[in-house]
Amino acid sequence: MPEAPPRAIRAAHTDTTITVYQAYSPALGVPAARDGRFPPAWKRERMTWIKPSFLWMMYRCGWATKADQETVLAIEITRSGFDDALRGACLSHYSPGVHADRDAWQRSLRATSARVQWDPERDPHLNPLPYRSLQLGLSGPTSRAYADEWTVAIRDVTPLARKIHGLLRAGDEAAARALLPAETPYPAGPLPHLGA
Known about the structure:
The protein is α+β, with helices and mostly antiparallel strands and 196 residues long. Helices cover 35% and strands 26% of the residues. α4 (102-111) links the parallel β5 and β6. α6 runs antiparallel to α7. The protein is globular and about 50 Å long.
């Protein structure tokens, strides 16, 4: 089996869409899934983080058990919107190998409404793996575009999360793995400005 690249985007995707995950309180998550769009109460001005990795989302929300993260959503968005955000994004932390200096990084950060973090990918038991997955933070105009223009469909995958978690707790890892969303390398191309 080939070794995974240290930083790569793995996701469920089609020719035109990519699926990302977020977790919310039922007050936000349930109407979003029901209506296929984010409700007016969803704050379009604040930074929101989207995650193409289902297992990283499970790590973040504790298999839908953490407060205000009890509803896990799979949000299918346009690849064109996602790709535009990636092209204009900046790393959320200064990286000497990527930025000329700290001032250049800060200028880039101020000039964009999209930022990237690379966090350790997780196995089904939520242990860190030796390679990283993308988190994409969106704010301002990019957050509004995500909510109101890029979103194609929103599904509540909380029952799936709970089923997989139950199988893992019962010791049936093979059955749990069989239910995981299929995430394959996303064809973003080289992303030198994001250290990948």
